[in-house]
Amino acid sequence: MAVPFPLIILVEDEAHLAQGLLFNLQAEGYRTEHFADGDLALAHLLAVPQHGPDAPAAILLDCMLPGADGFIIARTLREHRCFVPILMLTARSRPEEILEGIEAGADDYLPKPFDLNILLVRLKSLLRRMAWQSSPGTPTPPPQPADEVSFSGRTIRFDTLELLAPDRTTQLTLMEADLLRYLTDRPAQIVSRKEILEQVWRVHEDTDTRAIDNFIVRLRRYIEDDPSKPRHLTTVRGIGYRFIPNP
Q1: Percent with pLDDT over 70 in the chain
Q2: What's the CATH code, domain 7-133?
């Protein structure tokens, strides 16, 4: 039985832009569904299965929509443990808006106006990075060393985007995993907020925003025994953060 082409959900209320994207996505071989209203899109996405031939492979999500906006949609999907990759389309490239999308649970972002080829490359990258979700029957690749970091009874599995703790398993978004990888690759080093913006999230602007702090608060809930008294992901006042594997 042939494997169906990936299904891409486009949530975009600008008719001309949506028509062009749908045409080009279909030309690339993707199946598509389109919603111009945030409330309708959210209801549909909460109802569809996350696995199987009818499951969406990725969501192209505009920020500004009638009804629920893109931030609400992304946040609600993640709260309902829907981890379909989200590429957020932002009307402006302000760091605050981009970080709000990342904090809501987006896996990548693309400011408007954008080049179609760049969008297609970003989409393919998302799908490639989520290939671990491939359906049963896919040929098993040769064994590879586990792409993971362990500390204090916890293990971050970067290949499956999971954080394993003694009492639970947390599914990570790509942005969460990217930040954790950046920090764990630099144990005990101070990583500034500016470095996170530019090196992890590709926001090339000199700005200071509390959205990063809010993002760190969420990561602490995953990795700390007492998030109010962090031992692994500590704050360096006025500068940034530091990951300490063995405090």
Answers
A1: 86
A2: 3.40.50.2300
